[in-house]
Design brief:
51% strand, 14-stranded antiparallel barrel, 8% helix, two-stranded antiparallel ribbon, globular, Porin, mainly beta
Length: 346
């Protein structure tokens, strides 16, 4: 009976994965999602503390003019009696003269499958805003703010994320789809028919599928391995206006973004201290490679059970390397420890 029950769970998980594959969406992603997967999926439940808070900043492609700068803030709390996690996530991203803000609220529920495995189901609803600072944009034809070829207005949009995760003390196997409402015709048609011109920036869809393993031993060193697959679908066709100087008319065309598939592999070594029966993480050094041509490292210091500080550096081997010295990230995490005994902690 137990084997039949587990087979039903796995079949449900696979069917859900196929459904989520029908959607896809890109958004700002930190390397530190290996440290805090909540930045990627609302199904990640961190139940080691009463509450957990993190702040992260990313400076991408240093020395590249107009390169993205991102700021992330997350907060979550696990309600053990209700097997529920409530969370909030906010990020601000600036690329050249473009600024984006995303604030989301999430709900996740843990279903106990056995003494070892749990099923996490997560849902998030987000408010997104896109704006432009045309004073920082220039055109060879003249003033951006008065050029008839330029039609850039701010856009506000409501979106949603969905995640499913199988979790044990050592394993996390999950899928996530971001910005699902961007693919629902009712919502995209409202945006297209609004007074603001349709903007594809908020329509970048992405799917994530990941498997992460972490060893727990009484030795001084543990290790972690992970692999992630990411699928970014093109945004719906975006209206573009171009000024034809010969006929002095504005031409309108449509364009769709490219489809992008990526894979990422990750490995880390964790140094621990303390007695054999309860060792505590002190240092973690991880390395990752992201297709087609990006590699980096993540270094984390755990000051105690509450505080940790992480730094990440990655380098892109594509032609952007000619103009960039790589990307930097830093993340600070604070956790309110759970009192002993903790019945739900891994």
């Amino acid at each position: 009976m137990k084997q039949i029950f587990m087979m039903k769970i796995l079949i449900t998980f696979m069917l859900s994965a196929m459904c989520l594959a029908g959607f896809a969406q890109t958004n700002i992603r930190l390397n530190h999602y290996w440290e805090n997967p909540y930045t990627v999926t609302p199904a990640f439940i961190s139940n080691l503390g009463v509450a957990e808070f993190s702040a992260a900043a990313r400076k991408q492609w240093v020395n590249f003019d107009g390169a993205p700068t991102s700021l992330y803030l997350t907060a979550s709390t696990y309600l053990e009696d209700w097997h529920t996690q409530l969370g909030v996530k906010a990020f601000a991203d600036k690329i050249g003269y473009t600024s984006a803000i995303d604030v989301s609220l999430s709900y996740a529920h843990a279903v106990q499958l056995s003494n070892t495995w749990r099923l996490h189901l997560g849902l998030a609803v987000s408010y997104q805003s896109l704006s432009y600072d045309l004073s920082k944009a220039t055109l060879a034809t003249g003033d951006v703010a008065t050029d008839p070829a330029v039609n850039l207005q701010g856009v506000n949009f409501v979106n949603g994320d969905l995640g499913i995760e199988l979790a044990s003390k050592s394993w996390r196997i999950g899928i996530a789809a971001q910005n699902l409402l961007s693919r629902v015709p009712y919502f995209t048609n409202k945006l297209k028919n609004s007074t603001n011109d349709y903007t594809g920036y908020l329509e970048n869809n992405a799917n994530f599928a990941y498997i992460v393993y972490r060893s727990y031993s009484q030795n001084q060193f543990d290790f972690s391995l992970g692999v992630t697959g990411m699928s970014y679908s093109p945004a719906p066709a975006t209206k573009v206006s171009i000024l034809d100087n010969l006929s002095n008319t504005v031409l309108t065309t449509t364009a769709a973004g490219p489809t992008l598939n990526q894979a990422e592999v990750y490995g880390a070594i964790i140094y621990k201290t303390g007695p054999d029966y309860k060792r505590t993480d002190k240092l973690k050094l991880g390395f990752f490679y992201r297709t087609p041509s990006e590699a980096g490292a993540i270094f984390t210091v755990y000051f105690d059970e509450s505080f940790s500080l992480s730094y990440s550096y990655d380098y892109n081997f594509s032609p952007v390397k000619t103009f960039s010295l790589g990307s930097h990230e830093i993340m600070l995490t604070y956790r309110i420890p759970k009192p002993e005994p903790c019945h739900s902690c891994y």
